[in-house]
Amino acid sequence: MAETGRDGPTKSATADREIVISRVISAPRELVFEAFTEVRHLSQWWGPEGFTTTTRAFEFRVGGAWDFVMHGPDGTDYQEWISWTEIAPPERIALRHGEFRGDPDAFESILTFTPEGSATRIEMRTIFPTKKLRDEAAEKYHAIEGGEQTLRNLATYVTQILRKGAEN
């Protein structure tokens, strides 16, 4: 991703290893942040289209972990593990994500939640250990499309919460 410096556009040092996805969600930042940080919400929307999630352990704190299985629409199970490295409610979360604790191919993600009027822009910046792993995630596992679908699922879920709240 390009960033602008005093002397014009410059590339970040990790640009060739990154995937950046963002979406504006029509909901307050606090609600979007809550949906991303409480397991009762996460299990309702996490993952690309057609995937479901089973949580084995969840402890939301710096150093805590979310151990879960994503079930693909073709019946394949994917072991997943996330550990939070920074939590700054309701603005930012940083995490490591791999198949298991100590996974050498684990990647880092930084999520920012920025108000845009009454809506929230969520940006998910994922930084892979190598360009090869980034390219493999994008090409073999369709990480960009999957990330976009995941944020779309989040937007749909949060919109349903707001609609139900308005009806009650």
UniProtKB/TrEMBL annotation:
Alphabetical list of InterPro entries matching this protein: ASHA1/2-like_C, START-like_dom_sf
Lineage: superkingdom: Bacteria
Residue ranges of every copy of the Activator of Hsp90 ATPase homologue 1/2-like C-terminal domain listed in the record: 27-158
A Pfam family: AHSA1
Family: Belongs to the AHA1 family.
Name of the protein: SRPBCC family protein
Species per Swiss-Prot/TrEMBL record: Natronosporangium hydrolyticum
